[in-house]
Amino acid sequence: MKKLFVVFLLLFLISFGATASEIKDLSKRIEDVYGVSVLPPQEKGWSVMQKGKTQLVLAKKGPTENSTYIAPITIFKLPKIRTEQQFLEYISKRKEAQQPKERFKVIQDNHEFILGGTNRIIKYHKIVEDKVATTKFGNKTMLMEIIGYTFQHPKNYSVGVDLGFSYRYHIGAEDKELSDKANAFLDQIKLVDLK
Fold first, then answer.
1. DSSP codes, 73-87
2. pTM for this structure?
3. Closest CA to 69 of 28, 123, 134, 15
């Protein structure tokens, strides 16, 4: 729940012009996060909203009123997991706790396991209605579409990694290129030694 709260707090701050550290050099990797090396999305306007050993949040204002792009990367501790089913159940419960039903109405929730050698990888694509944003910004419904991966770090299976790319928007202001933008960002992320 803390992760989602932070993301929506950042959305709120972006919507009202809060300052952040704008990324000037898009060719420079961000390597502050434990076990991950990130190249920012290759578009002007992205900022670092939060940076630490276990979380990086990049953000950009969207093209329409109150719309925002967020690219969060989170590292977390995993319990000992023996099967894909245990992994899926653990991650599902973790994500559900981060998205309280009183705030979010799930519209679409697709996930699939993809081959990753011996580590477990879930690819997800989710669309939720944000009921709080809807009240805050009037009667227009706001949706958030999230594309990402959750997996065990290949260097240490007790470390979980969540990589995401999301867009929050009013109905009718969808980004038809969201999947391409998300994949371009997510595909360039490198997993590095855990230091």
1. EEEEE-----SHHHH
2. 0.85
3. 15
